[in-house]
Amino acid sequence: MKPNRRQILTASSAALLASLAPAQAGQFSGKIRKSLKWNMVKPAKPLPLADAFKKLRECGFEGVEPNLGDVADRAEEWIAASRESGLVIDGTVTANTVDLEKGLRLTKQLGGDSTLVVARYPQDRPLLESWKTSQDQIRAAIPLAGELGIKMLVENVWATFLISPMDMARYIDEIGSPWVQVHFDIGNMVRWGVAEHWAQVLGPRSQKLDIKEYDLKKAMSEGMGKGFDVPLGEGSINWPAVRTELARINFQGWAAAEMRGGDWDYLTDVARRMDKVLDLA
After folding, report:
1. Around 268, how many Cα atoms within 13 Å sit in the side-chain half-sphere?
2. Region class of 67: left (phi > 0), else alpha (psi between -120 and 50), else beta
3. How far is residue 25 from each of residues 59, 85, 214, 281, measured CA to CA in Å?
4. pLDDT tens digit sequence for 102-112
5. What's the CA gap between 120 and 122, in Å, rounded?
6. Which among 134, 133, 83, 79 has a CA at the least distance from the CA of 108?
7. 261: Cα within 13 Å, side-chain hemisphere
8. Structural domains of the chain in order of their starting residue, each with its CATH number
9. How far is the C-alpha of 15 from the C-alpha of 30, rounded, in Å?
10. 158: which residues sit within 8 A by CB, 6+ positions away?
11. What pTM was computed for the model?
């Protein structure tokens, strides 16, 4: 039976509405915001800071995280570039448990809400001694962190310290402050464990994410550091499983790319790959 005029018009209207409808949002669309470490920005031709920030917006990023040394005594220039471009300086990287006051104050000045902390230990000293010392250094900065409203987020790194999720959870819980939580690096632990298991154990302690890839086969054949030399989404990380665990805690916040640096086309590709592995679009 041939369709009548009314059926044809109804079908045509439905097709038109479907074509005009926005693309379906990803699972974490509106929940995760994309940032990157400033040291990834390596264009062939350097730009003034404000112009570089605008380019990062065009690449698909909403924020940036500098090391303290990247900013140094140029905080006002960074603040002006952020305001002009709309690129948020969401946090800083203090990188140790010693310069926490400096990191906290600079983060507040820049308008961020966290500073990344790396807990290390000298391997010629007893492990438990370093555990306690680093915790005490972080505890000493908690009153200032609370006063400024800046969180200290401890990252899991290749420092042969805090190398299991249970270690990290215990370390944070013993400090016992809402101002001390975790900057969860999805990739750093793959040489020791499984990313989604870390996400599950850390739970809501994970306040921000670092995004990178790691390939175990490449690491086994070419060396541990070579495991990072693979495009995001093409390595050993089970990203759907990681997303499942992030969804369990209703994760919302910043995720920063932390990979090798490159030009604007490369950074645009990184941002698009983040959309895919984090299901942002």
Report:
1. 8
2. beta
3. 19, 25, 27, 5
4. 999 999 999 99
5. 7
6. 79
7. 9
8. 27-277 (3.20.20.150)
9. 27
10. 188, 191
11. 0.90
